[in-house]
Structures
1.
Amino acid sequence: MSKVLVIGAGGVGSVVVKKCASVPSVFTEIILASRTVSKCEKIAQETFEKYGRKVETYQLDADNVADTVALINKTKPKLVINVALPYQDLPIMDACLETGVHYMDTANYEPIDEAKFEYSWQWAYQDRFKEKGIMALLGCGFDPGVTGVYTAYAAKHYFDEIHYLDIVDCNGGDHGKAFATNFNPEINIREITQKGKYFEDGLWVEIDAMSVHKKINYPNIGERDSYLLYHEELESLVKNFPTIKRARFWMTFGQEYLTHLRVLQNVGMTSIHPIVYEGKAIVPLKFLKAVLPEPSELGENYSGETSIGCQIKGIKDGKETTYYIYNNCKHQAAYNDVKSQGVSYTTGVPAMVGAMMMLTGEWMKAGVYNVEEFNPDPFLEKVAEHGLPWQEELNKPLAVNT
Ligand code: NDP
């Protein structure tokens, strides 16, 4: 039915391509382009071996709008799935505008010289996308992504008003490395070393990085120390569900990870400001990324599972209601399916399903949208069918209900 262009051949890109290949009725042709073409070729080879589907590959620097426009004009996709880095969001959206092609991504724009992510830059494309008659779907991974759809599903089926939202994200897995990040190390470290933030009574409350934490009990995993972070879906969810009084995001980190991170920060290795080394300007965090394991290489010996969900409190028919909706994903199950670890998998599967929603017309209207603005039901059905079923608990005590 449709040709897609996937940009970014990392951990997430590998899952997206393979999952698209598994649904030939929707994704009739798949093109993969990235900065390092050998990574595209490896994914294409693995996809051919497993699904017997050919993937066309191209070298592309997606920071360069003209190059992306040229590739889109040459290959003529209906949709571009951006799973490169957040820095490329705006240049790729510009290329989509110029060529009249739909757009989706899994992480919101972030300028390279400032560790600050917010939707304002991408929401500012609303009128231009509408006028051009094309759609942009923002943040369609797991978090952001499925967490927004879970919230929309809760609002549709279980609440008249949502008042309290806690997104809880646990990686209860072990990849056997002393220190590695589960998605792009540069983006991951920028995210967790910046100040934390949550929404309460109409205001954003800022806290020092990692200064608020509590033990949360995760299904099938147990209690884990969970830290309050700022996460991008909070921004769109409090806008799209204005009855929310408080919205927070919690993520688990092990002591070993935090100790490494503290040392790296203390010695200046997480800085995004260039230093001159042997006459060449280098960014310490980019150098650090180069010596850390690639997220796409963590899968083989990864044990344990992830558990991500939304804990919600609000009102239904005048009565206080609590609801917890979540998914647990085993790293080995992800590896057995597409040779990936659970974090890339839980991002790539919803990205493929978001693309499917757009291409089948379930979610299609001109303009720029977040996932929670669409009907959650068909999305959740397909996400479950393709590897990430949801569980739910109604009116049971919530672990973070304080
Ligand atoms: P990786 O670092 O594994 O992959 C990123 C890929 O993008 C690499 O192949 C890289 O190329 C490529 N790339 C970087 N810059 C450019 C460029 N200028 N032009 C073309 N290609 C480029 O990261 P992940 O796969 O783990 O993450 C991908 C995206 O998914 C990130 O934006 C991340 O924030 C997001 N994400 C979202 C999640 C969610 O739940 N919503 C969870 C996890 C990740 P090269 O190989 O040459 O470096």
2.
Amino acid sequence: MTSPVWRPFTQHALQKDAILVERGEGAWLECADGRRILDAISSWWVITHGHRHPRIVQAIKDQADRLDQIIFAGFTHEPAESLARRLVALTAPGLDHVFYSDSGSTSVEVAIKMALGYFRNRGVARNRVIALEHGYHGDTIGAMSTGARSVFNAAYEPLLFDVTRIPFPSAGCEQQTLDALEAACRSADAAVFVVEPLVLGAGGMLVYGADTLREMRRICAAHGVLFVADEVMTGFGRTGTLFACEQAGIVPDIACYAKGITGGSLPLAVTMCSAEIFEAHYSTDRARTFFHSSSFTANPIACAAALANLDIWESEDVRGRIAHLSAMQEERLRRFTNDARFSNVRRIGTIAALDLRARDAGYLATIGPALYEFFISRGLLLRPLGNTIYILPPYCIEASELDSLYAAIDEAGDRFR
Ligand code: PLP
């Protein structure tokens, strides 16, 4: 019988079967047909410490025994209170308030609404969103509007709002980006700049420098434009530091975290903001309320999982593991740097990426799924973005496991050119 499930980002006519997974353990997936697959993309970039870290599993079980779910308006609970306090202490001073939601897209949606509410409540007519070319911020309407336009959202164009788009700061062209941002910020209606710090994920693992990020932050501040750091992918260690913004020494007005916040175990997101933004909504006038909620806002079990994740960061050598993984990636990438089959070999923290040189544009359009199938046939979960092959593994991955990934990439280099 065919499955009634409609899967995300899946053309069912081309990809009929999904792989049935029964267990996860560390960096490995165990499938119903007996296969073991190495999860080299952390199950869509969420798993940080490996599947089923015992502390997170225990925290989930303990919380499920106490309180499963509670309306979060008028009520609160200790995991949400404690997590918010710890996140405020953990992030740079200036991110003082924590708004809970349950996906990265929603955390960005909330950030945009907070920014627009901030100006509206202060009687300032600013409502224009500025974003980087090639950005990806999720698939809800506001997040999709802010992200790059492509085949992925063409059908929904009538619903998407207009955004001022700034060119991506490719190496050597950073000043062009900064000039464009400055010009956009000068516009009287400029409200908020939304950006993935240091690396654009779904846009192709495109990396740019901390100096540019710092300048972007400075320009926004100079023009009173709110700065939103979308750390949904970069947060919780991926770029080598706990948060990517740390590397530029900047504090955003609003920051979005999701994916790795629970170690990837359960859906939870937060949008953190400055006291100034919270205070713009603080009033006896109900019309100034921040109007956003979802039924599962701050689910207690998800908050308990996030607390366990923070405990792991505090008590285990996560930073050491990240540094070791980053060095292992660097060492293995090196052999591809002068390899004619590949270009744009790059790494930021634990993330490695390289582009397969394609024969022609037509080939480029179909190469991603073909590469995916090839890697799966080798027992490896890699999900290239077009001809960009990237490795974004859980931090527990071992050297020999990375070796098998790079050996398969080498083989793909011969087979798919
Ligand atoms: N923002 C960034 C930078 C992302 O990489 C993603 C997802 O990949 C999102 C937002 C959307 O997150 P979610 O898929 O949890 O809605």
